[in-house]
Each structure stands twice: as structure tokens, then as C-alpha cells.
Write a structure and sequence with these properties.
By secondary structure, this protein is an alpha+beta fold. The chain folds into three domains: 86 residues, Rossmann fold; 55 residues, 2-Layer Sandwich (Dna Ligase, domain 1); 198 residues, ATP-grasp fold, B domain (D-amino Acid Aminotransferase, Chain A, domain 1, 2-Layer Sandwich), CATH 3.30.470. 25% of the residues lie in helices and 29% in strands. The strands form four sheets. Strands 10, 11, 12, 13, 14, 15, 16, 18 and 19 form a nine-stranded antiparallel beta sheet that branches. The chain has a five-stranded parallel beta sheet with strand order 3-2-1-4-5, with helices on both faces. Strands 6-9-7-8 form a four-stranded antiparallel beta sheet, covered by helices on one side. A hairpin with a 4-residue loop joins strand 14 and strand 15. The protein is globular. The structure holds adenosine-5'-diphosphate (ADP) and magnesium ion. The site of magnesium ion has 2 residues, from loops.
Length: 385
């Protein structure tokens, strides 16, 4: 046995927490670095260190004893990751991959270079530069670095006024007539074996601009599903380094698939794999970290994932509707252990697994009606935020 290899994880959010839940089954130690001592991983980590994962020296000190360094958020110090890789540690994702992905402009150029279909775009420094690209409008204006969960993305047309705080450099990307938004998690093993899960369909909440519900497999033809899996595997092969790649795609109204963006880590769109697949995205990641064979991506039945986002204000979180939710067969609750709920904050999710899609839909309706994360007690004074 090659056990145990010590894993150092940058970021202590829910993705890390679900990773640790699985890693514990193999008794693999996982250390976590996060600025927040109350973060979802704080109590589960073998060793928790409070500190900034985007600070080079902090990361180097934190990971000094680890064999493997991983991330659960993209905004980390790549300088530190490069140095740790040079020291001989396994770093997943590879710092080269991460540098490309951290910048949406470099990411788009990467797709073009590798013949991977993506929406037409231009790289511009400032909002007024949009005028030079009338053919791309209407468009989406995206900050090249630092965005997440729709922050840093703005729909624009010819006479849009971009608010002062929204600063470049930007990717200006032609607006696609989207039929469905899909995501596919591709897995590249330590030995180069590449596999992909069933595509999932992301259903957005327009108010929160967050994925609200996710359907797995996506409700599309087998031809589209096969093409989506193949495209995700091409992306993983183009990046060429071990790890997991969550590939977000648009299926446009002509039936073409275009890659939107890739996350080189566990992803919200892969939570369903915990209950609905032989090996979960977290299990795959652990296998990649440890140099073990790739796991089985096959799915049993149909599934959905409903995000539980904070509702009803700020306070200590309480999940309402537990009995109704668990009263359906095949429902699984995940709470991330965040200490404070706020409107729109991701607090947990519910996965539904059933033999047929219709049954999944009925269960989702029950979950969406009853399961809500609310503040436990009304705070004395409601402050507007
Ligand atoms: N070119 C586009 N055409 C149509 N919709 C888009 C386009 N780019 C982004 N969007 C919409 O905006 C969302 C967020 O954009 P994305 O680039 O994925 O940013 P983030 O990094 O915040 O997830 C997408 O999921 C999609 O709904
Ligand atoms: Mg996205």
C-alpha cells in the first residue's frame, strides 16, 4: 500500500468539505488552508490553518509537509503552486493549467488554439473599446480575472452603459442563443486515462444568477449527450494534466455545442455524482491525487440537485422542511456547515435519485416547496445590505 499521502488543500469551502468526507473513508489525511476559521472544512480537516491561500509565503509554509497540493477555489497563489511542484510535490491542477483558466482571456485563446468550439470574442481593455467590435453585439462583457458565480459578467448591447466599478481588461463575447446550458465533468487520471460523466443540465435562477436546479442526465438526445461527453474529454486532453475538469457548455438553438468555461476542480454541477454514480467527482479527485486508477463514472437512474440558498435574511442557519424532504424516497440532504445564512448564499443542496426522470421531477417539486435555509431566529434589527 502506498497510503497515506498527505494532502494540502487550498480553500475550505463546501467543495473541500465533500472532498474530505470521501477521503476519510480511505483514511487519507487532508490539511486545509482558509482565511475563515469557521469555514465548512475547519472541523473536518486533519489540520486546519487559518491564512490566505492567495499569499505565496503562507501557501508555501502551509504545504511544506504535504505530498499532494490541491485547490477548491481558483483564486490561489499560482507562484506558490509552481514552487511546490518544483519541490517534487504532486500539484493538481497543474499550475500551467490554472494560470490559463484564471484568466478568461487566456482560456478563450486556449480553446481557439486547440480547435475547441467556443463563442466568438475579442479581448478589450476598457468598456469604450466595445465600439470597435459591433459584430459581437449583443454580447457578454466578462472581467478576465477574479469573477465567479456570475459576478464579473454583464450582458451588454450597443448602447449599454457599463458601471464605473466594472473594470477591465475584459473578454467581450458574442451572446449565444442558448437552448440549454450543460456541464460535463471530465476526469483525467494519473495515467492519462480520460473519462466523462453524463452531461447535466443547469437551470438558472434569474433573480440570483445562480444555478438553482440541475438535472442529470441532461434532458437531451443521446447524440447530443455523447457529443458533450466527447467535447469535455477533448478539453481535458488539451489541458493534458491529471485532475477533474468541469466543462460548462452552451447547446445553441442550431444544436451546436460551444464551450463556455472550465473549472479545474470539483464543481457544483458534479454534486449529484455522490449519490447517483459509482464513483463521485470527489472520489475521482482523490484517486488522481493518490495516483490511483480512474473510478467508474456510470450513473444509476436519473438525478437532480437542488441548491439550498439562504432565504429570509441573515442569521444562524436552520433548514426548514427536513421531514417533507426526507419523506420522499431517494432524497439526500447536504448542509455545508456555514455559520451564517444570508440571502442568496449557497448553504447546502439536496440530491434526488430515482429510476425515472418523471419521478425525479415530482421529488424536486416537493424539495423546492419545503426545503429552505432560513435564519434560526429573527435578528433584533434587520439591517439592509
Ligand atoms: N456568450 C454568452 N451567451 C449567452 N449567455 C452567456 C454567455 N456568456 C455567459 N452567459 C451567461 O452568463 C452565465 C455566467 O457566465 P460565465 O462566463 O459562466 O461566468 P461565471 O464565471 O461567473 O460562471 C452563464 O452561465 C450564462 O448563463
Ligand atoms: Mg460559469
Amino acid at each position: 500500500m502506498d497510503h497515506p499521502r498527505r494532502i494540502a488543500l487550498l480553500g475550505g469551502g463546501q467543495l473541500g468539505r465533500m472532498f474530505i468526507e470521501n477521503a476519510l473513508r480511505y483514511n487519507v489525511p487532508v490539511d486545509v488552508l482558509d482565511p475563515d476559521p469557521l469555514c465548512p472544512c475547519a472541523q473536518l480537516a486533519t489540520r486546519f490553518t487559518q491564512g490566505k491561500f492567495n499569499d505565496r509565503d503562507t501557501v508555501l509554509r502551509f504545504a511544506a509537509e504535504a505530498d499532494v497540493v490541491g485547490i477548491e477555489i481558483e483564486h490561489v497563489s499560482t507562484d506558490a503552486l509552481e514552487e511546490l511542484e518544483q519541490q517534487g510535490k504532486t500539484v493538481i491542477p497543474s499550475p500551467v493549467v490554472l494560470r490559463t483558466i484564471q484568466d478568461k482571456g487566456l482560456q478563450k485563446e486556449f480553446y481557439v488554439r486547440h480547435g475547441i468550439p467556443t463563442a466568438p470574442f475579442a479581448l478589450i481593455n476598457d468598456a469604450p473599446d466595445m465600439a470597435g467590435h459591433p459584430g459581437l453585439l449583443p454580447a457578454f462583457l466578462k472581467t478576465r480575472t477574479g469573477g465567479y458565480d456570475g459576478k464579473g459578467v454583464m450582458p451588454v448591447d450597443a448602447d449599454s452603459r457599463v458601471p464605473g466599478g466594472f473594470t477591465g481588461p475584459f473578454v467581450l463575447e458574442k451572446k449565444i442563443a442558448v437552448d440549454k446550458e450543460l456541464a460535463v465533468i471530465a476526469v483525467r487520471g494519473a495515467d492519462g486515462t480520460t473519462v466523462a460523466y453524463e452531461p447535466v443540465e443547469m437551470v438558472f435562477d434569474p433573480a440570483l444568477n445562480l444555478v438553482d436546479t440541475l438535472l442529470a442526465p441532461a434532458r437531451c438526445s443521446e447524440k447530443v449527450a455523447a457529443a458533450a461527453r466527447k467535447l469535455a474529454m477533448r478539453v481535458a486532453e488539451a489541458f493534458g494534466a491529471p485532475g477533474i475538469y468541469a466543462v460548462e457548455m452552451f447547446l445553441d438553438r442550431q444544436g451546436e455545442l460551444l464551450v463556455n468555461e472550465t473549472a479545474p476542480r470539483a464543481h457544483n454541477s458534479g454534486h449529484f455524482t455522490i449519490e447517483a454514480c459509482a464513483s463521485s467527482q470527489y472520489d475521482q479527485l482523490l484517486r488522481a491525487y493518490m495516483g490511483w486508477p480512474v473510478g467508474d463514472v456510470r450513473m444509476h437512474g436519473a438525478a437532480a440537485m437542488v441548491n439550498l440558498v439562504g432565504d429570509g435574511g441573515t442569521g444562524e442557519p436552520l433548514l426548514a422542511g427536513v421531514r417533507e424532504t426526507l419523506g420522499r424516497a431517494g432524497t439526500f440532504i447536504h448542509l455545508y456547515g456555514k455559520h451564517e445564512t444570508r440571502n442568496g448564499r449557497k448553504m447546502g443542496h439536496v440530491t434526488v435519485v430515482a429510476p425515472a426522470p418523471e419521478e425525479v421531477d415530482r421529488a424536486v417539486a416537493v424539495v423546492k416547496t419545503h426545503a429552505k435555509v432560513v435564519p434560526a431566529a429573527k435578528p433584533e434589527k434587520q439591517t439592509a445590505k
